[in-house]
Specification:
- By secondary structure, the protein is mainly α.
- It is built from seven helices and no strands.
- The longest helix has 24 residues.
């Protein structure tokens, strides 16, 4: 898991630096129309929001608290994959080496019990 932690630290750092640059130097009133008039710009936006939807589906699956789910989805919409990178990092640490706990979160027990082989008497 340490390699994945390293990768997601890099992702979070890249997103923080990029978002900082955009907020400091960007002007959406000027750059937005150029982005939206470009086919690759439109495709990038569609790809971003499709990715946010896919990742948010995983959040909804693995979390139990509706407030946590709602806050995370709003943060995904505002900060994109910076939120995803931090969410993954948080859950890598929380899983403590247990991949099933990482991927399944609070649903781990229910999923593993459902798919466990029946016990022989």
């Amino acid at each position: 898991m340490k390699y994945f932690k390293f990768v997601y630290y890099l992702c979070a750092l890249a997103m923080i630096l990029s978002l900082g640059n955009v907020f400091i130097n960007g002007d959406f009133s000027i750059e937005g129309p150029a982005l939206l008039s470009n086919n690759w710009g439109i495709m990038s936006i569609v790809d971003l929001f499709a990715g946010i939807l896919v990742f948010s589906t995983w959040i909804v699956f693995r979390e139990d608290n509706p407030l946590v789910i709602g806050v995370l989805i709003v943060l995904m919409g505002l900060f994109g994959f910076l939120t995803a990178s931090l969410y993954i990092l948080f859950n890598l640490y929380k899983a403590n080496g247990d991949w099933a706990k990482f991927f399944l979160g609070n649903k781990r027990k229910a999923v593993t019990e459902k798919w466990a082989a029946p016990k022989k008497d």
